[in-house]
Predict the 3D structure of the following.
Amino acid sequence: MIRAEYAGEEAPETVARRTTVEFSEEGYRVRFSGQIVDEGTFEINPAPAKNLVLVGTAGTNEGRTIRSIYQLVGDRLRICYGMDGLQPLDFTTRRGQKRYLATYRRASP
């Protein structure tokens, strides 16, 4: 992760640098400082709105369904997570809004 914000507040740079997300056929995993803190399954709908739905099975978001939108450009992935269960319509966060906006850079193989 290279940048993140929640409800209009930017996350500290040290948090962004220590957080990674992995997507595979088995599901997704979020690591913080190398430790798995969240994992589950996901479903992608690439057209027309590029929706991503995460279902937490263990960790921080266990039992939650998180509706999101995503944008992939080159090695950058931007995801806006609707932490209130609602589908975001844009890549913004504002005070009082339960949205998490994160930008990731693809790791080198």
Q: What stands out?
A: The first strand starts at residue 3 and ends at 6.
